[in-house]
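Section 5: illustrative case.
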């Protein structure tokens, strides 16, 4: 009898302990900035850093943490949120990683996309640029987001870089990959046909648009390391209604581009510094916001904060800096290796 009573008590204690057990909640990353860190070239893995808006909370390696230690892949290039999912471009790995857009658990992987670069989406359409296995035989991929597979491959020339939708058309910066091109192509997504081709400057890289769907393009310029006399200047180009509205010459090697929330300024990197260009001026601005060869730029239009990154030579953790619209540094935080892209949740 006593043994039965003791046994019953032990069972009750065990049941109570199980019912009181606290199961850790899966971390969520809904509001804030995500830094896509490339990782070490050839031998490392990309990572994701999350900083929560209005907080000092910074979380490193959120993909690995959400997926039982799994690696994202080499090199993490960029990302986009589309229809409740995150699509992450893995350049050297030749794939796109698809995750839940809140907790970053792995949903799917799309393979066979060599040297993938940047995304753009509009409605149910999602596109991705890629350089191809040789760096000169790539094109633009249309992604089927229902099946997470390649729907179409568009052979539009070598080395497409930035993509952006404006006026329901897809703009493609065709930089040439390991070579040199100088075109922005305009694609009609209804039938994936090229409706216009604009010569903008050597090696167009990234594009942004304003609230009126004017598109701004930064061109790096051609850099010939064997014969610098063959170098060409960079360009900053405005496109309105599928026509070039103006062009500003900028130094060779200028790169990266973002736009503020009020459509007053463009930010880009030139000659080892981040500069702020008045969009109503045709004169190149040279005042530095920060003397740094920023590896990436981004502007959070909701929080009205400029972000820029320092890769620190890929020798360890990078750093992200946050600036107010009056060019004052307001915060900074550590990132993973090679912080190369900002995405805002």
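Designed sequence:
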């Amino acid at each position: 009898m006593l043994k039965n009573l003791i046994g019953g008590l032990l069972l009750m204690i065990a049941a109570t302990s199980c019912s009181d057990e606290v199961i850790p909640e899966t971390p969520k990353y809904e509001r804030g900035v995500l830094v896509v860190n490339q990782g070490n070239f050839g031998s490392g893995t990309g990572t994701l850093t999350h900083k929560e808006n209005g907080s000092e909370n910074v979380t490193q390696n959120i993909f690995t943490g959400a997926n039982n230690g799994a690696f994202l892949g080499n090199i993490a290039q960029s990302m986009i949120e589309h229809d409740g999912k995150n699509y992450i471009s893995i350049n050297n790995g030749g794939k796109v990683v698809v995750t839940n857009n809140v907790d970053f658990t792995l949903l799917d992987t799309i393979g066979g996309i060599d040297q993938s670069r940047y995304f753009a989406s509009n409605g149910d359409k999602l596109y991705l640029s890629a350089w191809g296995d040789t760096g000169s035989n790539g094109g633009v991929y249309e992604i089927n987001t229902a099946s997470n597979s390649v729907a179409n491959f568009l052979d539009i020339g070598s080395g497409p870089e930035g993509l952006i939708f404006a006026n329901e058309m897809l703009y493609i910066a065709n930089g040439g990959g390991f070579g040199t091109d100088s075109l922005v192509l305009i694609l009609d997504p209804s039938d994936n046909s090229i409706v216009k081709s604009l010569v903008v400057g050597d090696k167009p890289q990234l594009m942004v648009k304003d609230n009126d769907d004017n598109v701004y393009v930064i061109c790096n310029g051609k850099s010939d390391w064997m014969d610098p006399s063959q170098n060409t200047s960079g360009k900053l180009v405005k496109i309105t209604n599928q026509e070039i509205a103006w062009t500003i010459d900028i130094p060779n090697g200028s790169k990266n581009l973002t736009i503020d929330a009020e459509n007053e300024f463009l930010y880009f990197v030139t000659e080892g510094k981040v500069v702020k260009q008045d969009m109503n001026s045709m004169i190149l601005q040279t005042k530095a916001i920060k003397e740094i060869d920023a590896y990436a730029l981004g502007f959070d239009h909701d929080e009205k904060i400029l972000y820029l990154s320092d890769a620190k030579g890929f020798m360890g953790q990078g750093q992200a800096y946050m600036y107010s619209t009056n060019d004052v540094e307001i915060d900074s935080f550590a990132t993973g290796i090679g912080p190369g892209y900002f995405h805002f949740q």
